Amino acid sequence: MKSLIQKGFNVLGNDGLKVFLVRLKNFTIVKLKRLSGKNEFGDWLNLKNKYSGERLFVLGNGPSLNKTPLHLLKGEYTMCFNRINLLFERISWLPDFYVMTDDLLIQDMHQELNSEILDKVGLGFFPDLHPSNVSFKDRIGNRDNVYYLKTDKPEFSKDLPNCGINKTVVNAGLQIGAYLGFKEIYLLGVDMTFADRSVKKENSRDWEAKDDDDINHFDPRYFGKGRKYHNPTVHEMMEQFKKGKQFFEGLGVNVYNAGIGGKLQVFERVDFTRLFDVTPEQELNKLLSGIEGINVKGTLKETFPNALLVESDKDWDDSKRELICNSEIGLRNISGKIHDFIPLGPYQNKYVFLSRKFYSGTNDNTVLSKDQA
């Protein structure tokens, strides 16, 4: 109850009385629906501690993912969120777990979710009914790989399906990971760095992007033109991460920040690359496996002997089938070239860009199992 009262005061302070009354009305409707509905969430007991002894990598969607050799996650347990499907063509693995808790996102991308994501991920987790009175279940329905959450209270919980969103889907994901039995959880791409953009503001919470210029995520199209999203209130998210740290420590769950850069200092930092023991050849196979027609050899240059070596931005040639550049040039060009090229990397401080005229990316048709990884 205390958390709900505090949330009410926050809404009043940020959005004013009108928005507060709308949200209070929606919350009341949700309570009435709870009393009259069936409230079916799935067989959660079947999931409890199912992955005990394993480690989990939880991916936020910050721009630092472009600096991270995500191909190393092939064969690991992973959890991803929201528009992670934009990354599928660039990685040789698919998420074991997928979570979405945003009421604006489910309204904006439920068709995308059903057609591009749920058939490719292992398990999906969603609120059945968002506190704003938006039904996820009506848009997703019953699926064998979908479990529903009860997100009515903004609190951390070990007794799922009760699960607080707590300002960010990452916190919901961490509660799910702990319930599944993971005791070692590594965060990636939870950068907590949000630059100003040109947006249409309906209120302090609900925004709409004007252009495909999202610099706050790994792809400029993430919250691109016409996409609606919530104002990222960093200070509130940071406070919830602090509460979460104490909560998970009490459960014996160790959460680490393995991301590159960013401002999230709440969790102990670790070096992502030191979590893996692979040779350069093994790493190259992880990077390129799943792309049809590629015969992986010892190095990038041997694998792509006809690739253009880009040593400066002026060397770039859009007509080329493959281009290889250092990571600095690659990171600088992802945003501008994403419509015409598939960027893969970083690998050994290099990026390779594959022309969409000749390549269709990875993970288009099949779900890779752990045995295939």
How would you sum up this structure, described in words?
The chain has nine helices and 15 strands. Strand 3 (97-99), helix 3 and strand 4 form a beta-alpha-beta unit. By secondary structure, the protein is an alpha/beta fold. It has two domains: 39-274, sialyltransferase cstii, chain A, CATH 3.90.1480; 292-355, no CATH class. It is globular, with a radius of gyration of 21 Å. The protein has an eight-stranded parallel beta sheet with strand order 5-4-3-2-1-6-10-11, covered by helices on one side. A four-stranded mixed beta sheet has the order 12-13-15-14, with helices on both faces.
Structure summarized in a few sentences:
With 373 residues, this protein is an alpha/beta fold. The protein has helices at 2-15, 17-36, 103-117, 137-140, 169-179, 234-250, 280-288, 300-303, 327-337; strands at 55-59, 77-81, 97-99, 123-127, 146-149, 184-188, 199-201, 206-209, 228-230, 254-257, 268-269, 308-310, 322-326, 341-347, 350-355. The protein is built from nine helices and 15 strands.
